[in-house]
Amino acid sequence: MTDQLSLSVLRGIPAEARPRVHPGSVQAGILHLGLGAFHRAHQAVYTEDAIADGGGDWGIVGVAPRRAQLIEVLSAQDCLFSVTSLSGEGARTRVIGSLAAVRHAPSDPGAVVDLLADPAIRVVTLTVTEKAYRMDPATGRLQVDDEVRADLTTDRPPRTVPGLLVRGLTARARAGAGPIALVSCDNLPSNGRRLRGLVEQALGEVPAGVTFPSTMVDRIVPATTEETLARARTALGVRDLAAVAAEPYRQWVIEDAFPAGRPAWERAGAVLTGDVEPWERLKLRALNGVHSALAYLGALAGCRTIAEALRLPGMRAMLERFLAEDIAPSFTPPPGVSVVEYGQSVLERFANPVIEHRTLQVAMDGSQKLPQRVLHTVLDRRSAGANPVCSALVIAAWMRFVGGRADDGRALPLDDPLADTIRAALDGAGGKPADVVAALFGLESVFPAELAGDDVTRDLVEEWLAALDRHGVVGVLGRG
Ligand code: CS2
Questions:
Q1: Which residues line ligand 1 (CB under 6 A)?
Q2: Rounded to two decimals, what is the model's pTM?
Q3: According to CATH, what is the number of the domain 7-275?
Q4: 278-479 placed in CATH 1.10.1040.10
């Protein structure tokens, strides 16, 4: 049986794949919540490069907010894991050593709260996905359900992300542990401002010395599969059960507001700037919005991957129109950036044939994603008096997708925190497109009132839904 990746086998793996930083050689300075594939292929890589080139005690303590399995794997591997960059030109694997320690929040929430109150921890980063913030996606307000209320008002161990943060910040203030930056690295609009608003709502005020830099994060990192593990094993000669694979491209734009210092992420290629919001909007609308379009239309057409969906006849032309007519005119991009050119490069990345990104993975949690990815574009275009035709097609595709049947009649899973609410809305509606649109536009946490009450948008979505019901995705795209 092959060995498993750990410090003791590092000397046996190819020199170019060895980590640039050894876990244990630097002290921890960052607490990270959310140990998923995205974090491992993104912030963990930037931070390893920043420590290697710029120094500093910026090791990461990685916290898994839900599952314990990865914690066991990473503990057995001395916190080491590998990232394989995949493109048509080949694969490159490197082991990353920026994780200094790992914790499992559900089994030891107290340890996470203590870390947040530890003066050595000066930066907290989060990749917990949209739904873990417990925000109303349409408004960004904290949704105080029983769980969140118990976290905020009792002293039982916190179970939610807002609960952990708020308890930790309170403990930090009490301990006088000094300033700290809380950095959301999730695909939310104005993610820094939203996180700040959430803390403010929960505590009644923002504790002194706490900042919330906004960031735009980007790298396509599909869920790990058996193939990912097999590739890592071939490259390393040992088993790595925490391996991830990703596209070669990566980007990180960070608002430079760190009151207690930060790693030299710019040495690793990150852009530190005063204003991230144009970058966030660009990425959410022109990358994630187009991704969601491919996910819903592709899943309905029976495509397993995003690259396959992009090859459907008429798909690329529709997406180019979506980019040029709806997305590009909907906002002011960062200086010097052309949204249409950015969109073209995004389409090239989506076409990467070796990245097996499943349509169903991107389709997940649509209720949490649709507002910032597509609905904000619609609102901005409608304010300008324009008809966002392609955006309406994407909304209709989501509506047909949540109905649970692909064009060939096969069942589609609905993996969404609002799944029950969506199903209840659909069950209470008639089957006609107008009924479905009316029922789903009634979901106030997804569709802002302004959009739900807009007849032009409603008519467009209804027409597309009728066309999808009648002709299927292939028929609709093929008609040009
Ligand atoms: C995707 C993103 O799953 C999704 O919803 O759109 O995870 C996307 O791959 C990343 O944001 C790329 O940076």
A1: 187, 218-220, 288, 291, 361-362, 369
A2: 0.97
A3: 3.40.50.720
A4: yes
